[in-house]
Amino acid sequence: MTEHFGNRFPQFYITTPQPCPYLPGRYEKKVFTHLLGENAVALNNVLTQSGFRRSQNIAYRPACDGCSACVSVRIVVDEFEPNRSFRRVLARNEDLSGNEMPARATPEQFSLLRAYLDERHAEGGMADMTSLDYVSMIEDTNVMTSVIEYRSSTASGEGKPPLIAAALTDTLEDGLSMVYSFFDTSVEERSLGTFMVLDHIRRAKRKGLPYVYLGYWVADCRKMAYKMRYRPLEALGMNGWERHPA
């Protein structure tokens, strides 16, 4: 890291213990640093490759006492082949167009996010998010990021088709990092969460980027299990990034 930043080595901090959002009865601590100034883009690249995640202008990773359950995972884009289930998801969403937009929060995005949180994560850490919080989530950043908006290209009527899903996505030197995604939960048959991951794999391939970063996988957390469906997958361990066993 010193090669990238010379004498301006980033300062790291650690949080106080908080209840773990993944494993009941456990507590988490995080190590974090700020993504500020002219080195923000380079630092975000290096830290993401080192297992950090981004939230606004903060990069963080778990640093829990006696626990290493959170494992950073990424999809190997060039070797990924959609199975029959994934092909069905892609076919069901052929009418959707995904447009990469600047990182600017809109009322339409926030309305969709609020409905998503109320339906899927009413007890989660983002449950009380306000419109101002959402603006900060999208716009308070110095890295290469965008919002990919998904709309039906076959919608009838006047005006722009309604927003059906969205993903806040960082573009890195070696991949796309899915920071946060949300969608219309009333169209469950579309499997929009799965579709957005598949679409990011296609986008990374078109850009010549080798990976799609999915954040953390926790073996004993049911809501994280979906990440194991995308093969081949690499996991970050003591010896660096290694192929996760099928």
Overview of this protein structure:
The chain has helices spanning 2-5, 40-49, 84-92, 107-120, 131-139, 192-207; strands at 13-14, 18-19, 27-28, 30-34, 53-55, 58-62, 70-76, 96-102, 145-152, 163-171, 175-183, 211-218, 233-237, 240-243. The protein is α+β, with helices and mostly antiparallel strands and 246 residues long. The chain folds into two domains: 9-70, no CATH class; 73-243, Gcn5-related N-acetyltransferase (GNAT) (Aminopeptidase, 3-Layer(aba) Sandwich), CATH 3.40.630. The strands form three sheets. It has an eight-stranded mixed sheet. It is globular, with a radius of gyration of 18 Å. The mean pLDDT is 92.
**CATH class descriptor name of the largest domain:** Alpha Beta
Strand order of the largest sheet: 8-9-10-11-12-7-13-14
Tell me, rounded to a whole number, the average pLDDT.
92
CATH superfamily of the largest domain: Gcn5-related N-acetyltransferase (GNAT)
Provide the β-strand percentage band. 25-35%
**Can you count the beta strands?**
14
Rounded to an integer, what's the Rg over CA atoms? 18 Å
Remind me, CATH topology of the largest domain? Aminopeptidase
**Overall morphology:** globular
First-last Cα distance: 32 Å
**Contiguous runs where pLDDT drops below 50 for at least 5 residues:** none
Label the structural class. alpha+beta
Order of helices and strands: HEEEEHEEEHEHHEEEHEEE
Give the total of domains. Answer: 2
